[in-house]
């Protein structure tokens, strides 16, 4: 037998960092969960238990904390690039570093109409994610993303004109609830190295902010003919807003809310135009995926 691929490292490394502005007294916090997986000349650690090539995953965890102390941890695209570049520059036999950063929300509290200097709340399970792949001599690939942004609209969504055959029971609709949990990603053009990443640092936050705003604006304002068409429009808008982005992808579950026929109870009308009480479904759910490029 021979190894076709191997990578190892530390997952679920939770990191919190505070930035204290001495002048204003305003403190800013960042909380993230990091995964580092390394590749390279490590096969002998699997095949003949030669641990001389093993950078202990415990050492990787230590490295994450040290680098978080020594460097900015935001934007996550920068910190992921710093971290990945450290591993391939420090260990000659490590040729690829795969870094995933999941940034959690700590939204600053507004107290009596004013932003509080050091108090925050978790407004949703939504995260800002980054996956960076740093390959020795081949630059840095970065995919940024939004995950877990749960949205719903009570109307402004249609679905009709689809295949009708002996397997079809779904009625056509011109007015339905649409709910999804956004999993969106945008892949940056390959960066030649750290200098190229540092040169565009402000564009990372802007792209995330634009992608988030575009997603919600398009979701809200489109009288959606389908999940497919609406997500395609979101991709086009993000590509337009971020020239350094090569491709945009979405994976959207269609979280169904079923109408409930209540006519058995004294002829109560609760379907179609009279629908008010619905049954939110845990599953099955639609799942619609797309990747849109520039060509
Ligand atoms: O937006 C939708 N796309 C679909 O492909 C689909 N299938 N059932 N309901 C659906 N809604």
Order of helices and strands: EEHHHEEEEEEHHHEEEE
Number of strands: 12
Name the beta content range: 35-45%
User: Which structural class should the secondary elements be placed in?
Assistant: alpha+beta
Strand order of the largest sheet: 1-2-3-6-7-8-9-12
* Low-pLDDT windows of residues: none
Principal-axes geometry comes out as globular
Small-molecule components bound? 8-azaxanthine
Percent helix range: 25-40%
Largest sheet: 8 strands, antiparallel
Mean pLDDT: 98
What is the straight-line distance between the termini? Answer: 42 Å
The count of helical stretches stands at 6
If you compute it from the alpha carbons, what radius of gyration comes out, rounded to the nearest whole angstrom? Answer: 24 Å
Q: How would you describe this protein?
A:
With 295 residues, the chain is of the alpha+beta class. Helices cover 26% and strands 37% of the residues. The protein contains six helices and twelve strands. It has an eight-stranded antiparallel β-sheet with strand order 1-2-3-6-7-8-9-12. A two-stranded antiparallel sheet has the order 4-5. The protein has a two-stranded antiparallel sheet with strand order 10-11. α5 (201-221) runs antiparallel to α6 (227-241). The radius of gyration is 24 Å and the shape is globular. The two termini are 42 Å apart. The model has no long low-confidence stretch (mean pLDDT 98). The site of 8-azaxanthine (AZA) has 8 residues, from α6 and β12.
């Amino acid at each position: 037998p021979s190894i076709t691929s191997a990578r190892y490292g530390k997952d679920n490394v939770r990191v919190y960092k505070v930035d204290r502005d001495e002048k204003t007294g305003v403190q800013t916090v960042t909380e993230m969960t990091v995964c580092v997986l390394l590749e390279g000349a490590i096969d002998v650690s699997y095949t003949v238990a030669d641990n001389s090539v093993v950078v202990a995953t415990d050492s990787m965890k230590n490295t994450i904390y040290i680098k978080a102390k020594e460097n900015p941890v935001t934007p996550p695209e920068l910190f992921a690039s710093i971290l990945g570049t450290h591993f391939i520059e420090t260990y000659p036999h490590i040729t690829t570093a795969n870094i995933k950063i999941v940034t959690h929300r700590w939204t600053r509290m507004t107290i009596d109409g004013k932003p509080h200097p050091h108090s925050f709340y978790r407004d949703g399970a939504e995260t800002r994610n980054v996956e960076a792949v740093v390959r020795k001599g081949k630059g840095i690939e970065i995919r940024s993303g939004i995950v877990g942004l749960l949205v719903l609209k009570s109307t402004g969504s249609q679905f009709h004109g689809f295949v009708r055959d002996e397997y079809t029971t779904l009625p056509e609709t011109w007015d339905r609830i649409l709910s999804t949990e956004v999993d969106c990603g945008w892949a940056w053009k390959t960066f030649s190295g750290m200098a190229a990443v540092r040169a565009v640092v402000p564009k990372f936050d802007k792209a995330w902010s634009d992608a988030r705003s575009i997603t919600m604006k398009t979701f809200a304002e489109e009288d959606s003919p389908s999940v497919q068409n609406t997500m395609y429009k979101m991709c086009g808008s993000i590509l337009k807003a971020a020239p350094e982005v090569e491709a945009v992808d979405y994976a959207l579950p269609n979280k169904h809310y079923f109408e409930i026929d209540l006519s058995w109870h004294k002829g109560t009308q609760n379907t179609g135009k009279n629908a008010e009480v619905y049954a939110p479904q845990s599953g099955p759910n639609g799942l619609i995926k797309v990747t849109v490029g520039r060509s």
